[in-house]
Amino acid sequence: MASRIRLGVTAAIALALGVASVAAQDQSIIVQSTTSTANSGLYDDLLPIFTDETGIQVNVVAVGTGQAIKNARNCDGDVLLVHAKPAEETFIADGMGVERFDLMYNDFVIVGPLEDPAGVRGMTDAQGGLEKIAGAGAMFASRGDDSGTHKKEMSLWGDTDVDPASGSGEWYRETGSGMGATLNAAVGMDAYAMTDRATWISFGNKDDFEILVEGDEDLFNQYGIILVNPEQCENVNVEAGQSFVDWMLSDTGQAAISAYEVEGQKLFFPNAK
């Protein structure tokens, strides 16, 4: 009889643990995200607030936008948060996302060494700045990784008379790395680079580098948020994922985004509608 009681208690404990495990899974999500939101420290600031309010744990996979979209297409995630609107719209058109929402924005800038060998300091014409850099044969470090920043950079080159591929391995260096690593490479080579402003503000190895080109409307950097479509990916945690999307778009989430600063500078500007 005692043996049966022990077995019954063991089974009850196992069942309870199983239920707790399922509940824990229900209260966690994976967000496939661009690196800039993670490297800037935004998630470290926002996610504890969200988790405290909802009990939902958010696990962020921070990679380039292209890889994040690929991961979401492979059903490895519940929410997509990136910054390449045309690619996001294709993701929706292909049925992989439920709906895309504008979330927040900042801008891209071109940074470079104090000596500024290409003479682009103070320019507000991004394409013109790139043409001057190429014309001078000055070093330029590109992420070269299909990230949102790289997609924007290639779009800007596409509006010039320069094919950067022709200078690959010479004045044009593709790192195949994230933004922080690319900025470190740029500083090490005295090369120009394009980065989102949030990453630049948060970057700790600026040396004598500074923002040289900014203010062009073509450098606008919009972020979007999308719930992965459960009709395509049956493992999507719809309830928790939608809660995260809704919170980020809510007055509370938007206020938290707006309040986040580094060294007294706002990194992201909420613009959910």
How does this structure look, described?
The chain is α/β, with parallel strands linked by helices and 273 residues long. It folds into 2 domains: 2-105 and 222-270, Periplasmic binding protein-like II (D-Maltodextrin-Binding Protein, domain 2), CATH 3.40.190.10; 107-219, D-Maltodextrin-Binding Protein, domain 2 (3-Layer(aba) Sandwich), CATH 3.40.190. It contains 11 helices and 12 strands. The protein has helices spanning 2-26, 35-39, 42-54, 65-73, 85-93, 126-136, 148-158, 179-189, 197-202, 238-249, 251-259, and strands at residues 28-34, 57-63, 79-82, 97-113, 140-142, 172-174, 192-196, 209-213, 220-228, 261-262, 265-266, 269-270. The strands form 2 sheets. Strands 1, 2, 3, 4, 5, 6, 7, 8, 9 and 12 form a 10-stranded mixed β-sheet that branches. It has a two-stranded antiparallel sheet with strand order 10-11. β5 (140-142), α7 and β6 form a beta-alpha-beta unit. The model is unreliable at 1-25 (pLDDT under 50).
Observed structural traits:
D-Maltodextrin-Binding Protein, domain 2; two-stranded antiparallel sheet; 273 residues; alpha/beta; 2 domains; disordered N terminus
